[in-house]
Amino acid sequence: MTIVLLKAYDRMLKHFGPRHWWPAETPFEVIVGAILTQNTAWINVEKAIQNLKSARVLSLKGLLEMPEKNLSILIRPSGYFNLKAKRLKSMVHFIAETYDGDLEKMSQAPLQILRKQLLNVYGVGEETADSILLYALGKPIFVIDAYTRRILSRHHLAEPNMTYAQIQHLFMETLPTQVSLFREYHALIVETGKTYCRRTPRCSECPLFKWPPPPA
DNA sequence: CACCAGGCAAGTA
DNA sequence: TACTTGCATGGT
C-alpha cells in the first residue's frame, strides 16, 4: 500500500504541480473557509469570504461582534447560510473562550486534545476538524473528504462503506508523518477529484487512469 | 428542468 | 449501531 499511495502522489504531482494549499491568506480564513465549504462548491465559498472581507469582519473579533442574523446575510452565497452562521459563531466563541482568541496559543496544544475540542464544537465534524488542524494549525493529520473516498473506491483501494477513521489510518500508517506531505497530498486529491472524478467522471484523462488497479 | 458541490446534527428504529 | 432527513445557493 505504501508504494501504491506514493505512486499515486507522484502521478498527481507531476500532472498538476504543487498546489500550496489551503487557498486562504491567514489561518483564521482557513477556519472560516473550512466551515463554509461544507457540502458546497468552493466558488460559492469565495463569494461569501469576499463579502466578509468587504465588510471588514473576517477576523475573530469581527465575527464575535457581528449579530448572527447579519452574518448569515453576508455568507448567503455559500448556502445553508442560517446553519453556517450559527456554526461560525460557535467556532469563534470556542476560540475566544478556550484560547483567549489566540490561534498561536491554540496551535501549541497537543493534536489529540485539539481534535476532541474541535469535534465538540457545534458544526464541526471529522473533516472540518482535520482541515483546521492540518491547514490552520499545522498539525500532522490526514484529511478525508468525498473525493478521497470516491477516488479510492473507484480504484478498488477501499470499500465505499469504510469509516472515516479507517480511511484515515490507511494514509497515516502508510505515509511518513509530515505536515507538508499531508497538505500537498490532500490538495492533489481534491484537484484530481474536481477535474476528473466527479459523479460523472472523465477517467481516461485522469493522471490515475490505467494505473494499478484501474477504475471499472 | 434536474442534479450536484471539499458535511454535519438530529431524528428514527 | 445504521440509516434518513433538513439545511440552500449558484453553476452545468
Describe the structure.
By secondary structure, the chain is mostly helical. Helix content is 60%, strand content 0%. The protein has 12 helices and no strands. The relative contact order is 0.14.
Itemize the secondary structure elements and their pairings.
Elements: H1 2-16, H2 27-36, H3 42-54, H4 60-65, H5 68-74, H6 81-99, H7 103-106, H8 111-119, H9 126-136, H10 146-154, H11 164-172, H12 179-196
Helix pairs in contact: 1-12, 2-3, 2-9, 5-6, 8-9, 10-12
The protein binds a DNA duplex (13 and 12 nucleotides) through helix 3, helix 6, helix 9, helix 10 and helix 12.
Q: Please outline the major beta sheet.
A: none
Spans of at least 5 consecutive residues with low confidence: none
CA-based shape: globular
Q: What name does CATH use for the topology of the largest domain?
A: Endonuclease III, domain 1
The CATH class designation of the largest domain is Mainly Alpha
Structural class: mainly alpha
Helix content: 55-70%
Distance between the termini: 19 Å
Please state the second-level CATH architecture of the largest domain.
Orthogonal Bundle
Give the beta-strand count.
Answer: 0
Written as H for each helix and E for each strand, in order along the chain, the element string is: HHHHHHHHHHHH
Number of domains: 2
